[in-house]
Amino acid sequence: MTTGHRITVERSEDHVRVVHGGQVIADSTRPLVLRETGYPARYYLPPQDVRTDLLIPSETTTHCPFKGDASYWSLPDGPEDAVWAYSEPKEAVADIKDHYCFYETEVVDDR
What we know:
Blueprint: E1 7-11, E2 15-20, E3 23-28, E4 32-36, E5 42-45, E6 56-64, E7 68-74, E8 83-86, E9 100-102, E10 106-108
Antiparallel strand pairs: 1-4, 2-3, 2-10, 4-5, 5-9, 6-7, 7-8, 8-9
């Protein structure tokens, strides 16, 4: 039996933090979690919860047939292309529009 590709976006109550070089780059208690067949769950953080002033724009772009075209940013002193966002995502994942996703995130247990 073959299963098809599935992608969902949900609001999460997790507290997500991104720390790089001892500096908090992002801290959110209102992330979106995107789950996609064959990939780990990814947190998408609203721009208000991200230190965008610390992100270094990259020339890298990628295309996903399910999400759309992504733009990338690097973190100070690397790694490169560690952050991405979709400015015009596909309708099925429209909620992630302009939210930032990081390869490395930490879920903070503050319950």
